[in-house]
Design a protein that fits this description.
- This protein has 2 domains: 149 residues, NAD(P)-binding Rossmann-like Domain (Rossmann fold, 3-Layer(aba) Sandwich); 148 residues, 2-Layer Sandwich (Dihydrodipicolinate Reductase, domain 2), CATH 3.30.360.
- 37% of the residues lie in helices and 24% in strands.
- It is built from 9 helices and 15 strands.
- Helix 1 links the parallel strand 1 and strand 2.
- Helix 4 runs parallel beside helix 5.
- The radius of gyration is 20 Å and the shape is globular.
- The relative contact order is 0.17.
- Bound molecules: 1,4-dihydronicotinamide adenine dinucleotide and (2R,3S,4s,5R,6S)-2,3,4,5,6-pentahydroxycyclohexanone.
- (2R,3S,4s,5R,6S)-2,3,4,5,6-pentahydroxycyclohexanone binds next to helix 7.
- The site of 1,4-dihydronicotinamide adenine dinucleotide has 24 residues, from helix 1.
- It holds the Pfam family GFO_IDH_MocA_C3.
- It catalyses: myo-inositol + NAD(+) = scyllo-inosose + NADH + H(+).
Amino acid sequence: MNDEIRIAVLGVGKMGSFHVDSLTRRTRGARVTVVGDVSDEQAHRVADPIGARVVADPAEAIAADDVDAVVIATPGSAHEAQVLACLEAGKPVLCEKPLTTEAATAAAVYRRETELGRRLIQVGFMRRFDHEYAALQQMIAGGELGAPLMLHCTHRNPAVPEFFDSEYMIRDSVVHEADSARFLLGEEIAAVSVVRGRPTADAPPGVSDPMLVLFEADSGALVTVEIFVRTGIAYEVRTEVVAEHGSAMIGLDQNVVTKRRGGTWGGTITPDFVARFGQAYDDQVQRWVDAARAGIASGGDAVDGPGSWDGYAAAAICEAGVAAVVKGERIETGMEARSGAGGAMGGVA
Ligand SMILES: NC(=O)C1=CN([C@@H]2O[C@H](COP(=O)(O)OP(=O)(O)OC[C@H]3O[C@@H](n4cnc5c(N)ncnc54)[C@H](O)[C@@H]3O)[C@@H](O)[C@H]2O)C=CC1
Ligand SMILES: O=C1[C@@H](O)[C@H](O)[C@@H](O)[C@H](O)[C@H]1O
C-alpha cells in the first residue's frame, strides 16, 4: 500500500461529490482513484478534474487493484449489494446512511460482517462527529444532568423533491434521529408511534408533512421528533435533553453571520445539511480514513464510528416507524439480539 489509501467513491451526486471534495482537498492520507456512477456524465464531471478513473460497474470498482477502500453514496436501495461486495473483497467501506432500506437486509449485512470476523463497515451517521452532538453525548454519559428522561428533536428541511412521501421522510430523514437518540441515550429503541397532523399546503396529496414521531427507549425514556421537510425556511436541526437534574439544548443558534444594520439585528440560518454539518462530514471522513489505513495495515478492524449494528438498529427503528405511519399504531422494533461488535463510538457501542 502507498502512503495514501486509494479510494473508490460510488455515487457522486450531492453527497458523493462532497465526499470526493473532502477526500481530495481536506483529508490527509487518502486519494480518490476511482469514481462510479450510473450517470457517466456525472462520473466524469467529478472524476476528470482530479485525475480519477471512471468505472461504471460498482462490483468492478470495488474489486479494482487500485482501490483499497470504498465510499458508498449511491441511493439507499443500492447499498446492500455494494456493502456486501466490499465485505467479500475485504475492503473497508464508509456507507452513507441508511445501511440498507430494510431491517432484515441490514441484519444480514451485520451478520455477514460478524461471520467474517473483521469490522469493515462504517455508516455515515455524521451527527456523531458534530461538536455539539458529541458534547451533549458526553454531558449525558457523564451524569451531570442525571438520568435522561426525554429528548425533543426538531428536524426541518427547507425543501425536498416531490417523491419524498411520509414513509420516505421516516427512512431518509428520521433515520438520523434513530441513530442520534441511541447515541445520546446509550440504549436501544423499543417502540415507535407516529402522529400525522395537518399537512402544509406544499405537501403533495396524501403526504403528511409535518409529522410527530415518538420513540420509546428500553428504559422508558421518550424521544419526540418533529419531522418537517418542506418548511420553505432553512435547515434547522435541534435537540434538547430533559434529564432528572437539568436540561441542555443544541442547534439553537445556527446563525453563521449575525448582522446589525438599520436598527435591526439578525442573521442567516444554515440553508442545507452541508452548511450545517460540513465540519462533521469532514471529520467523519478523516477519522474513517485513519481507521481504514490502520485496519489495512494490521488486517484488523477498520472503523472509527457507527458500524453495522448501528446501521441495523436504525433500519429496524425506521421500519417500525414506516409501519406506524401506515397502520396508525404503536409498533415495537423487535430487534434481534446482538451477537458481535459492529458499533464503536459513544452511546451504544
Ligand atoms: N449524511 C447525510 O446527511 C446525507 C446523506 N445522504 C445519503 O447519501 C446517499 C446519496 O444521496 P444524495 O447524494 O443526496 O443523492 P443524489 O441523487 O444526489 O446522488 C446519488 C448518485 O448516485 C448515482 N447512482 C444511483 N444509483 C446508482 C448505482 N446503483 N450505482 C452507482 N451510482 C448510482 C446517481 O446517478 C447520483 O449521481 C443516500 O444514501 C442518502 O441517504 C444524502 C444527503 C445527506
Ligand atoms: O441525510 C439527509 C438527507 O438525505 C435527508 O433527506 C434530510 O432530511 C437530512 O436532513 C439530511 O441530513
